[in-house]
Write a structure and sequence with these properties.
alpha/beta; Nucleotidyltransferase, domain 5; two-stranded antiparallel sheet; 5 helices; 7 strands
């Protein structure tokens, strides 16, 4: 029986959430990142997933109990080269952590969890605001969050519903 349901909104600006199904406790955080000089000739800074911090954060919560992760599929678009490279690097770093901790995972598209949790008719530009309002209704304790990006939390809730058989994937 799965105890921890994990949702990851992929990327260096993404969020991660863990729902403890036994206690209903929620663990929620931005994906930990660190800045590095870019590897190209042009001097610029890039953000990378801090795999050590991410692994420590997850290890401290999960304590070897059964868990499952839904991981939002990264944006891969050849016309947005920099964003695609960043998303691919974030994906690989996060996968290394999940595999090292032996956490089973599945990829999902944003439309999958949004179709179940966000009301119909919400326009693209209002998705973040609607998601925050839904998260506040489902999890009243999140109203204190300064970070309005709650996608990781809603992905974790979607994971819980799918794995408990309440929603067909």
């Amino acid at each position: 029986m799965i105890r921890y349901f994990i949702g990851i909104d992929n990327g260096v600006t993404g969020t991660i959430a863990v729902i403890d199904d036994k206690t209903n406790k929620i663990y929620f955080s931005r994906i930990p990142v660190k800045e590095h000089l870019n590897y190209t000739k042009k001097k610029q800074w890039i953000k990378r997933i801090d795999v050590t911090s991410l692994k420590e954060w997850l290890s401290g919560i999960l304590s070897k109990k059964p868990s499952h992760c839904f991981f939002e599929r990264p944006m891969i678009n050849p016309t947005r080269f920099k964003a695609t490279v960043s998303a691919s690097r974030a994906l690989e770093a996060t996968l290394i952590v999940l595999e090292d901790l032996k956490i089973p995972y599945e990829y999902i598209d944003s439309k999958q969890w949004q179709r179940v949790l966000i009301p119909k008719g919400v326009k693209e530009k209002n998705l973040k605001k609607a998601a925050f309002q839904v998260a506040c209704r489902l999890f009243p304790q999140v109203t204190y969050l300064k970070n309005k990006d709650v996608d990781g939390l809603l992905i974790a809730e979607y994971c819980r519903r799918v794995k408990k058989g309440q929603v067909k994937q």
